[in-house]
Structures are given as structure tokens and as C-alpha cells.
Amino acid sequence: MRRRRFDLSAVFELLLGVPTVLSSLLIVGLAGRAFSLERWWLFPVLWLVSGVVVFVPAMDRAIAVLALNLRGPTSKERAVLEPLLEEVCGAAGVAPQRYWLRIENSKEINAMAVGGHVVAVSTAALALPPKHLEAVLAHEVGHHLAGHTRISLLRWWYELPARAAVRLTLLVGLGIFLAGRKIGTKTAYVASVLLVVALAAVAVVASPWVLLVPVIAPLLALSSRRSELYADRISAELGYGPMLLEVLQRWVRQGHDERRARAGIRARMLASHPSCAQRISRLHDKKAPRP
């Protein structure tokens, strides 16, 4: 039986979210003061407690449908996926009923794990040979076993107020700037620019994490790539290493790594997945005898 435990990359991702979460608390606290000067602290406390919502199974379903546009499998798709998922869960020592199968309508081969229960594959992935598809499912179950998806969802929830505040500030700033240009006078244009600068200063004070985005974004991407390698490792430990290698080698033949190399350094730094070559190398190392 595979014991569930958080991977270090999940913990690292949670730590990287701390600046944004603190900004969210500040914004929620300011909103609380607008309603009550004496009990403003209830707002950030209730916001922290609200994080339990990510552990409610219905939350996974809502995100799968509303945010990711995933659908339930047809009876034919279910007949293909359920036996494979049962095999994976049997190897992992977990009940297959804990996971909900979902489908992404896409011509690209893809799969994902969401929250604590959702395992989704694209319609294109359904065309993979059964053993290859089973290895892909093992990789996604590995994300669940390591806690990657739950931590990502928790971080997303706590970052909502800060992200909403930044987007609202950008929209207001853009509106002010466009209004200044539409008026057409030099005075109006200068005034609009000054208002936008003042608004940006207020946004930075309210959400100082914005200044850390150039640093946090690559680190979050690095954490995501590590989590992918860790899910590969779990898949290999469950006995799916050779099949997963074949899937990755197939992607290499299809030019996946070549397109990645042409994307540029910045795109590679912000990529959520490591290259197929790196994943293949790590899987080969996993197969090598340990000293």
C-alpha cells in the first residue's frame, strides 16, 4: 500500500504563496474595518477558516465544471477508464471510489488531477493504448497521493482577495487612462497618468506581493516541475515506469521537446512541466539499482 504524504514541492508551493496570502488578509482586514472598527478582526479570521471549503468534495466538482470545463465521461468512456483506474488504485492501495473521472474535450493528449478527487483525461488521451493510458492515470493519482493538487487549490483560494484587488485596480487604472486620452487635452492626459501612478502606489501598498511576482512566478513553475517528476516517481514505484517511459518517448517523437526549445528561455523558466527528456532521464535513474 502506498502511504499518502505531502511532497516537499507541495510544501514549497505553500510557502511561496505566503506573501500573497498575507496581502489577502490585509485586504480582508481593510474590508472588515469598513464595516466595523471594533470587530474588524472577524473578517480575516473567518477568511482563514473558510479555507476548509477546499476540503469539501463538492468544491472539486464545481471547479472541474465551472473553471476547467470538464465533463463526466460517457458510458463508453467510463467503460474504458474505470477498469484502468481500478488497476492503478489497486497498486496504490486506495479505493477507486475516492476519485471522480472527468473528460476534457481536447485534441491534445492531456491529463490532470484537481483538488482531492478529480482525475481527468482529454478525449485525445482516450486513444492511447490501454497500458499507456493506465500509466497516465497512475501519474495523476500520484499527484493526489503526494498532496500536490490539494495544496494548489488551498493556495488559490487564499490568494483570491489579493488577485481580485490587483485586477480591479488594473481595470480602474485602464479606465482612467482611456478617459484621459478620450478627453484629448494635455491637462486631462497628465491628470490621468498621475491618477494611474497614484492608484498603482496604493495597489502596491495593499498588495506588496506584486513586487515579488518576477521572483515568485519562476519559483512556482519550478515547484510545479518538481511535482511532475515526483508524480512520475510514484507512477514508477507502482509499477508503471516502463509504460510511462513509452508515453514520454512517444511525445518526444512527436516533437514536444523541439517546440519547447523554440519557446525561449523565459517560456522554459515559466513552464509548469519539465521536458520529456528530463522526465525520461529521471525515470531511468529510478530504475537503476541504488548503492
From TrEMBL:
Cofactor binding mode and count? Binds 1 zinc ion per subunit.
Keyword field: Cell membrane, Hydrolase, Membrane, Metal-binding, Metalloprotease, Protease, Transmembrane, Transmembrane helix, Zinc
Q: What is one Pfam family matched by this protein?
A: Peptidase_M48
**TM helices/strands, residue ranges:** 12-35, 41-68, 189-222
- Give its localization: Cell membrane
| GO cellular component terms attached to this protein's record | plasma membrane
| InterPro entries in the record | HtpX_protease (IPR050083), Peptidase_M48 (IPR001915)
Main localisation: membrane
Cofactor(s) required for function per UniProt: Zn(2+)
The processes (GO biological process) annotated in the record are: proteolysis
Q: How does it sit in the membrane?
A: Multi-pass membrane protein
Q: Which GO terms describe its molecular function?
A: metal ion binding; metalloendopeptidase activity
Q: Tell me which residues make up the Peptidase M48 domain.
A: 78-285
- Protein family (similarity comment): Belongs to the peptidase M48 family.
> Which PANTHER family has this protein been placed in?
PROTEASE HTPX
Q: What is this protein called?
A: STE24 endopeptidase
Q: From which organism does this entry originate?
A: Lentzea albida
